[in-house]
């Protein structure tokens, strides 16, 4: 007997934050937001907030707190997840999380490792603040696409669970007591 999946009718509000000093200053255009838009097509996710911020942990923390206090249910950040001296996105994100969801970042790294060994250098994190899911994506359009392709299918269910609209059922039918 197959699993019965119910159609999701809720559109979850999504914010995309790009962290880039050069894109923020206008030195170069951002190329990641269009990739995020395209990768989320067909999912019950509606991007309603797009921001380009400098690589500034305090600015990112303020934006994450603001967004997670409002209607936004998913915040996708892009950039600042590497080993460079200005790459502070994971630390800024961890500082505002209620708890981490490590499986999301693990899935992204595993998917990216199929394309580049550099994926093992990613420090991206994912977690929850106030029933909103925050996910750090890489800063290159190609890597954004690869990582979102790996996790996009699981995001609606995660948001249903956070909203209390679904139950987390184990495939075996076993539940923790």
TrEMBL record:
<dbReference type="GO" id="GO:0006777">
    <property type="term" value="P:Mo-molybdopterin cofactor biosynthetic process"/>
</dbReference>
<comment type="pathway">
    <text>Cofactor biosynthesis; molybdopterin biosynthesis.</text>
</comment>
<dbReference type="InterPro" id="IPR001453">
    <property type="entry name" value="MoaB/Mog_dom"/>
</dbReference>
<dbReference type="InterPro" id="IPR051920">
    <property type="entry name" value="MPT_Adenylyltrnsfr/MoaC-Rel"/>
</dbReference>
<dbReference type="Pfam" id="PF00994">
    <property type="entry name" value="MoCF_biosynth"/>
</dbReference>
<protein>
    <submittedName>
        <fullName>Molybdenum cofactor biosynthesis protein</fullName>
    </submittedName>
</protein>
<keyword id="KW-0501">Molybdenum cofactor biosynthesis</keyword>
<dbReference type="InterPro" id="IPR036425">
    <property type="entry name" value="MoaB/Mog-like_dom_sf"/>
</dbReference>
<feature type="domain" description="MoaB/Mog">
    <location>
        <begin position="15"/>
        <end position="158"/>
    </location>
</feature>
């Amino acid at each position: 007997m197959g699993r019965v999946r119910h159609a999701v009718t809720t559109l979850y509000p999504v914010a995309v934050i790009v962290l880039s000093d050069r894109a923020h200053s206008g030195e170069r255009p951002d190329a990641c937001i269009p990739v995020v838009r395209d990768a989320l097509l067909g999912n019950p996710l509606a991007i309603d907030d797009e921001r380009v911020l400098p690589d500034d942990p305090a600015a990112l923390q303020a934006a994450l707190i603001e967004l997670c206090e409002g209607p936004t249910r998913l915040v996708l950040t892009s950039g600042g997840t590497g080993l460079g001296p200005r790459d502070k996105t994971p630390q800024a994100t961890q500082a505002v999380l209620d708890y981490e969801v490590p499986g999301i970042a693990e899935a992204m790294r595993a998917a990216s490792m199929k394309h580049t060994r550099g994926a093992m250098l990613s420090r991206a994190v994912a977690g929850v603040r106030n029933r909103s899911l925050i996910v750090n994506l890489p800063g290159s359009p190609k890597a954004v696409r690869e990582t979102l392709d790996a996790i996009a299918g699981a995001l609606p269910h995660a948001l249903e669970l956070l909203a209390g609209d679904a139950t987390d059922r184990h495939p075996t039918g076993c539940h923790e007591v």
